[in-house]
Design a protein that fits this description.
- Helix content is 26%, strand content 36%.
- The protein is globular and about 45 Å long.
- It is built from four helices and 13 strands.
- The protein has two domains: 46 residues; 166 residues, Jelly Rolls.
- Helix 1 runs antiparallel to helix 4.
- It is α+β, with helices and mostly antiparallel strands.
């Protein structure tokens, strides 16, 4: 097999079947914005802060994560945006629960697949415990179908940037922490992605045949 074509096939298969499970992106930016009046407002002000100079990193495990721990710098006045992309298999579809232990001194909001689940404008610090529901985000009874899903957290912190955690559970199973080895089905590429991959492979095959013909 032509070396170029072999490389393309290996790359395409890797993209289609990557086994890294959930993808977690953690972002932070400076912000002195105060508490907000709705989930949509939290998303707007945090998104604006990221556009003004946010930092971004991939997270292997969403446990004891803080802006200072990931990026360094101070522990005051910043906005946080965390995005978790994960796949649900047909075997895991059904009743899902989520919980997020946060340190959002000026409150925050949670969205699932672009829809607001809740927001909280009070000082939130979970201190490693989910016992006080007002200090964390907790959701149950969410019906998730098989396919790709995205969970997003938006928060504002003035002090002091404590460690945060995000977990999931499904169909009466125990809570598990989102991470690169959380056992969830890898997010499946959308049909458009497959089309681009196949189109690229077709072009490479055509080029390889032309070279052999010449």
């Amino acid at each position: 097999m032509n070396a170029l074509l072999r490389t393309a096939l290996v790359t395409s298969l890797a993209l289609a079947g990557a086994a890294h499970a959930s993808d977690i992106t953690y972002e932070a930016a400076s912000s002195t914005t105060g508490a907000q009046a709705s989930a949509a407002d939290y998303r707007t002000v945090v998104d604006q802060a990221m556009l003004s100079g946010g930092q971004s990193a991939s997270i292997a495990l969403f446990d004891n994560i803080s802006s200072n721990g990931v990026f360094g710098g101070g522990v005051f006045d910043h906005a946080v945006r965390a995005t978790i992309d994960f796949g649900v298999s047909s075997a895991n579809a059904g009743d899902w629960s989520f919980r997020a232990g946060v340190d959002f001194g000026l409150g925050g909001a949670v969205f699932l697949d672009g829809v607001a689940l809740a927001y909280n404008s009070n000082d939130m610090w979970w201190a490693g415990s989910y016992a006080d529901a007002s200090q964390s985000f907790q959701f149950s009874g969410l019906q998730l179908a098989a396919g790709n899903h995205t969970l997003q957290l938006y928060g504002l912190e003035h002090c002091c940037d404590g460690g945060q955690q995000v977990q999931f559970g499904f169909n009466d199973g125990p809570f598990q922490t989102f991470g690169a080895n959380d056992g969830l089905t890898p997010a499946v590429p959308e049909p458009e992605t497959y089309a681009l991959m196949l189109g690229g492979l077709g072009a490479l095959v055509f080029m390889a045949r032309r070279r052999r013909a010449n």
